[in-house]
UniProtKB/TrEMBL annotation:
UniProt keyword terms in alphabetical order: FAD, Flavoprotein, Oxidoreductase
Name of the protein in question: Putative FAD-linked oxidoreductase
Domain FAD-binding PCMH-type, residue spans: 43-224
The protein's Enzyme Commission number: 1.-.-.-
Similarity section: Belongs to the FAD-binding oxidoreductase/transferase type 4 family.
Main enzyme class: oxidoreductase
PROSITE patterns noted in UniProt: FAD_PCMH (PS51387)
Length: 478
């Protein structure tokens, strides 16, 4: 699919200046540069302009002009994506549509347990405003200080609390969307039951701006827990971690809100590059689990439940050692270890990243089989395996051998490693993208692993809603 750009962009830019103000139509190279490269610096594009509307009506006006002038639009929130989904191509004919100025919290309804926010509101701001109202907005991820709720919705972001609260899709009750023709759909109903036709909301969530532009959303809130109890547990294998997960779910049920798996090499990397984050055990363990309970009764109740869980896990031989956080600061220190794994990886050098998902029961087998195949193919490759064990999402990354040239490693091995990992994912009935989206990074790979029937259905939806292919072309599906 190639968008048509039949008319000169200057007429489009002049019309946009009239619609949203000339100062919000950025064309100077210095002004546009921050919008043209992705967070990982893997992709760098060009654009005829960066457009910065301040309301849903202004977004609709810009999209309508783009439709008239046949200009493709690339929507962008905080630009923290990991798959190049918010980066324009190199033609210079596309325009970046920044939603950062749509940054209002429109309403908090504590009786309905909802918060209505515009697409450009930073995730941490949503969390803070919910807390001020005595509520919890549970979506939490490493980029929460800069990512936006519109981007979270567009990629159906996951994060660390999916086990209890679900992905962003499950936290959303309603959307406001600008269609590819520039019409504004108000679906901000905040209903938990609405059985009146096709679920348009879910169609736009996870579509990465290829079907329309999300401008606002009604998001679910939850009661603030009375206490959180956090611990690290050392285990002998991923299989033991799965058995421990089952035990924790049996003991804690819905109180179990976090269950993160980290391989021994992840812990080594963090210790190497961030020595202030002290390794909590006297001995090394093949796998470490970070788990958290959120208790609605009291800290004493949560800690008692936690202690009984750990006692049972040690008696059954599932856990080799465990450390329970004794303070909020120590709890945060445990989470800092988990959150610094990607930063430590970046310090170590270039690597091949995979955001995959497999059925929870298959995780141990997937790791064993895929690790072995990678070791045979690229001797010395180091596996950085971590992720959200409770929902089957692994960040299964491959670091260059110790002392090797990371750039050469990437150039020579990335396609081969991707094929090994994605073929293994397919054998285990998994997905090649669990929470980062497809963007331009995995659009071709997705076509390789989806069935013809599924691809035809996706293309039919895209063609029906965006026949001119002006909404983020080249992303998700080609």
């Amino acid at each position: 699919m190639t968008p048509s750009n039949a008319l000169a962009p200057q007429a489009f830019l002049d019309a946009c200046a009239s619609a949203i103000g000339a100062q919000h139509v950025l064309t100077d190279a210095h002004d546009t540069a921050p919008y043209l490269a992705d967070w990982r610096k893997r992709y760098e594009g060009a654009a005829c302009a960066v457009l910065c509307p301040a309301s849903a009506d202004e977004v609709a006006a810009v999209v309508k002009l783009a439709h008239e002038h046949r200009i493709a639009l690339v929507p962008q929130g905080g630009n923290t994506g990991l798959a190049g989904g918010a980066t324009p191509d190199t033609s210079g004919r596309q325009a970046v549509l920044s939603l950062r100025r749509l940054n209002r919290v429109r309403e908090i309804d504590t009786h309905n347990n909802t918060i209505t926010v515009e697409a450009g509101v930073i995730l941490a701001e949503v969390q803070a405003r919910a807390a001020e109202a005595g509520r919890l907005f549970p979506l939490s991820l490493a980029a929460e200080g800069s990512c936006t709720i519109g981007g979270n919705l567009s990629t159906n972001a996951g994060g660390t609390a999916v086990l209890r609260y679900g992905n962003t899709r499950e936290l959303c009750l309603g959307l406001e969307v600008v269609t590819p023709q520039g019409e504004l759909w108000d679906g901000l109903r905040g209903l938990r039951k609405d059985n009146t036709g096709y679920d348009l909301r879910d169609l736009f969530i996870g579509a990465e701006g290829t079907l329309g532009i999300i401008t606002a959303a009604v998001m679910k809130l939850h009661p603030q827990p009375a206490a959180r109890v956090t611990a690290l547990a050392g285990l002998a294998s991923a299989h033991a971690a799965l058995d421990f997960l089952a035990l924790a779910q049996r003991f804690a049920g819905p109180l179990l809100t976090g269950f993160e798996l980290m391989s021994d090499f992840c812990m080594q990397l963090v210790g190497r590059h961030f020595p202030q984050l002290r390794y909590p055990f006297q001995q090394r363990h093949a796998q470490v689990v970070l788990l958290e309970l959120s208790d609605n009764e009291s800290e004493a109740h949560g800690r008692e439940l936690f202690e009984r869980l750990m006692e049972a896990a040690l008696e059954e031989g599932l856990v080799e050692d465990a450390v329970v956080a004794e303070s909020l600061a120590q709890s945060q220190a445990f989470w800092n270890i988990r959150e610094h794994i990607p930063l430590a990886q970046a310090q170590e050098g270039l690597n091949v990243k995979h955001d995959i998902g497999v059925p929870i029961s298959r995780i141990g087998h997937f790791i064993e089989e895929t690790d072995a195949e990678i070791a045979r193919t690229v001797p010395g490759a180091r596996m950085v395996t971590f992720g959200h064990l409770g929902d089957g999402n692994l960040h299964y990354n491959v670091q260059a051998p110790e002392g090797g040239d990371p750039k050469r490693f990437l150039a020579e091995n990335e396609p081969t490693l991707n094929r090994i990992v994605y073929d293994s994912v397919a054998r285990h009935r998994g997905t090649i993208s669990a929470e980062h989206g497809l963007g331009q990074l995995k659009a071709d790979e997705n076509a390789h692993y989806k069935s013809d029937v599924e691809l035809a259905l996706m293309r039919a939806v895209k063609t029906a809603l965006d026949p001119l292919n002006l909404m983020n072309p080249g992303k998700v599906i080609r």
